[in-house]
Specification:
Its EC number is 4.1.1.48. By secondary structure, the protein is of the alpha/beta class. It contains twelve helices and ten strands. It is 42% helix and 16% strand. The longest helix has 19 residues.
Length: 270
């Protein structure tokens, strides 16, 4: 019997979690909560504007990970949201998965209430019910991980996001997932440098897939980005939006670290 990968383990408990939550709160109830949530903030548009002259940064609020354990002991989502905004972040990403990342649903609303930035709910979504749940929490964008879902599930999640006026960040890690994502409509395409089965990272993934991505997609490089040099190296491939969490979470002065990361962006080729 083979040992389950990290992603397989996450998917197993997440499906159980979804079933339990749906049993506690039916579709009518969760949709009512979603309709009562604060108005959607434009996530993709914010990144598009930011990357015209600089970089679009999705700054992530993440306490822990399956591979690294606790990343930040002094973990205060509202304070981190303010720090990221002060440092020049374009959007926020908030981990809400509990078992693997020590996240919590409450972190998203708490962070969003402190700033005017659009917020991505960073979690593992499999069911349209979770999209309504994400909106009820205040999320402006959801994540669709092609490594975790079928083509039909991806399309269903994307359609649900559109129904709620939310953006969807479609995440791929290899050429097969990139090809599978081509039937989706979202303009946001995240290239994850991290293999979710092993949690190993390689920036070559962005270099490879960015050259094969459809021209109408706005690319976001995710994971393994630590320095201005990393960002400049990826920007040479036309990718000017980044999702960064761990390297910023480890800094004592998050404002200064965020500001430094975004300083002197590589000038886009006209």
């Amino acid at each position: 019997m083979t040992t389950p990968t990290i992603l397989e383990r996450i998917k197993a408990y997440k499906l159980d979690e979804i079933a339990a939550r749906k049993a506690e709160r039916d579709q009518t109830s969760i949709e009512a909560a979603a309709r009562a949530a604060p108005a959607v903030r434009p996530f993709a548009d914010a990144l598009l504007q930011a990357k015209i002259e600089g970089y679009g940064l999705i700054a992530e609020i993440k306490k822990a990970s399956p591979s690294k354990g606790v990343i930040r002991n002094d973990f205060d989502p509202p304070a981190l949201a303010r720090a990221y905004a002060a440092g020049g972040a374009t959007c926020l990403s908030v981990l809400t998965d509990g078992p693997s990342f020590q996240g919590d649903d409450s972190y998203l609303g708490a962070a969003r209430a402190e700033v005017d930035l659009p917020v991505l709910r960073k979690d593992f979504l499999f069911d349209p019910w979770q999209v309504a749940e994400s909106r009820s929490l205040g999320a402006d964008c959801i994540l669709i991980i092609m490594a975790a879902v079928s083509d039909a599930q991806a399309a269903e999640l994307e359609a649900a996001a559109a129904d709620w006026g939310m953006d969807a960040l479609i995440e791929v890690h290899d050429r097969e997932e990139l090809e599978r994502s081509s039937h989706l409509n979202s303009r946001l395409l995240g290239i994850n440098n991290r293999n979710l089965n092993t949690f190993e990272t390689d920036l070559q993934v962005t270099r490879d897939l960015s050259r094969r991505a459809p021209e109408d997609r706005m690319l976001v490089s995710e994971s393994g980005l630590n320095t201005r040099e990393d960002l400049a190296g990826i920007a040479r491939y036309g990718v000017r939006c980044f999702l960064i969490g761990e390297s910023l979470m480890r800094q004592e002065d998050v404002v200064a670290a965020t500001r430094d990361l975004l300083a002197s962006p590589m000038v886009p080729v006209r």
